[in-house]
Every structure is written in structure tokens, then in C-alpha cells.
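TICKET #2291
ISSUE: user wants both folds in one file
ATTACHMENT 1:
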Amino acid sequence: MLSEHKIYHALSEQHQMLGCDRELFMLNLLVAAALIFTALNTFVTIGALILGSLTFMLLRRMGKKDLQMRHVYLRQLHYRPYYRAQAPLLTPPRKRYLK
């Protein structure tokens, strides 16, 4: 018989804040707050709030589609030199087999 093991909830839950990736959400808040408090201008405050809201909406949409999208994209950038999207120009054509 197989033995049963408890899986703790904290190990399997996603790291989200308000439906967004937690780190990107906190970075968004930090940038918006930095813009607001360094400029101390009404127009910059309104612009930072609009920019922060739009970024929040995009992050929320990204979180609904795939929460790991950021990690996959960063990994793809890391391995870009090893895996080319296209074959080099001098690659011989592939053999085609008749069906």
C-alpha cells in the first residue's frame, strides 16, 4: 500500500497579490510611489496613477493567462544563444519522405 503524505498548502500556492505576480506588483507600486513622491506635482501624480493603473491591469491579465510567464520569458532570454529560432543559412534542406 502507498503511504499518504501531507502536502502543506504554503508549498503549493501561487505567489500572487490581487491576481498579479507578487514581485511585479510590488515593483509597480514602488515605481508609482517614487514618481509621485519625488516630483510632488499634480500632473506627475495623475500620470503616475494612470501609468500604475494601466500596468496593474496588464499584470492582472498576465496573471490570469499564465502566472509563470515572467519566469518562462527570462529563461528563454537566458538560453537564447544556445537555441536559435531559425536554422543557419548554409544548413542543407531536410529530407522529405513520400507518404
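ATTACHMENT 2:
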Amino acid sequence: MVPPQKLFRFLLTALVRGGVPAAAAGLVGCTSLYFPPPPHVPLLTQKSEFYGSVSTNLQNNFAFQGAYAFADHLAAAGTFSSLHRSKGDKTENFDFAEASVGYFTRLPDKRVLEVYAGVGGGSTDRTERNAEQLTTRRLEGSLSKVFVQVNYASKKKHSVHIGHHDFPLSYGTALRLSYVQLNNFRIDGQGQAPIGNVIFEPITFTRVQLAGPFQLQLMSGQAIGFHPNAYLKAANSVFQLGLIIGLGGSNSWKPGQ
């Protein structure tokens, strides 16, 4: 049994490698109605390979992701992200789904490259309250999205030693460019003009091999908006901690192994 303090140091080490600044940014609140789902990084290598993950962040934004290589170099991927939280001064609800198709290939020296294009859609609302718990404002609308994404992982063999075990680490990068639009936007029931934003999400991720096909993933990055507006900001950081599984395919080839 690994002592808790050693496990904590182990996770902290992996997080530092993956990027602490974005994790700290996740602690900062934001009034945006859009909470970016984490980019999917399946890192597929051959036909019939499956990738799945479940993750969450400091804002209790849960994400479920999956990808399947239905042909040599071709894959389909999907994401469902959900956030439901209630504080003293506000209640927020966010449900969002994405679907994409992509191309993947191996590169020399045990590297992998993926390129995806996809669409997304969902709903969002926020109810604001005063100190007497009376509703002062309600914002709601639907979201639509199109995006392109590039994933890259290289072979970097590092390990963290805990007790009598070595846990291999691997690293990678994902770059996502999205156009997000807030439609059917209403404030206190009054219709508003649609709002759009172009958002760039550079992220890094660290994977820790646990046992068999299971890995722990730490993802950190930032959502950068090109069109500032009041309700569709990109100030929410991308920070996710999750468990992933890879089945089939060339698992022995995976980066970090």
C-alpha cells in the first residue's frame, strides 16, 4: 500500500511537469456562460483501438470522452461535459457534447500525431441571487461550436518511484481552435443578439501508467478568446484530472512505454 503522503508527492511531481500555472488559474472564478470541455487526446495508433476517459476539474466540471479507430489512420471521437453547481449567490448549469472525426499516424522515434475536426452543442444557464436569496438575474441560452484540433506526443521516458514501484510518465500537447456561439440568449426572459467568440486552447498533458491499460492523466492549459465580450469569455482555464483506459491497438508502442 502506497502511503498517502508519497502518493501526494507523486501527483504533485506529475502536475508540475504538466503545468502548474494553468492549474492555479482554474481557482479563479469567471462569469462566462461557457466552460470549455477538455480537448480529447486519445493518441490512437492503429485500427480497432479504443480510448475512454472520465475526468473532472476544480469547478466540478465532469467530462466523459471516448474515441475509436474505425479504420487505419481514421477515428471518431466524442465528449460529454457537464457542470451543475449551486452557491449562495448563484446556480450554474452547463451541458455540452462534441463529436469529431480525425486522422492519426505514427511518426519516427515512437511519436504520434492526430488531427481532428468536429462540432459541438449544448445548453447553459445561470441564476444570480442577492443576500436574501432572491433571484436578481437569470441568463440562459444554447451553445454551438466548430473546432479543429492537433494532438502530438513524443517519447519521453521518465518515472516516479514510490515504494517498490516505478510509474512511467509520458507527455504531450494539444492545440485546439474553436468558434463558439451563444444562441437563443435571454436575460430575464428578454431575447438578446447571438454572441460569438474564437477561442484558442493550448494544453499540455501528463500521463502516469498505473496498471494494465489504465493511466492517470493531468491536463492543464488556458482558453484564450480573440473577441472580448461580457457573457462568452474565455477566461476559464482548462485543468482536468482523470482516469483513462486504452484497449486494443498497439498498446506496447504507446509513448512513455
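RESOLUTION: both attachments delivered.
EXTRA DETAIL ON ATTACHMENT 2: Residues 38 and 238 are 6 Å apart (CA to CA).
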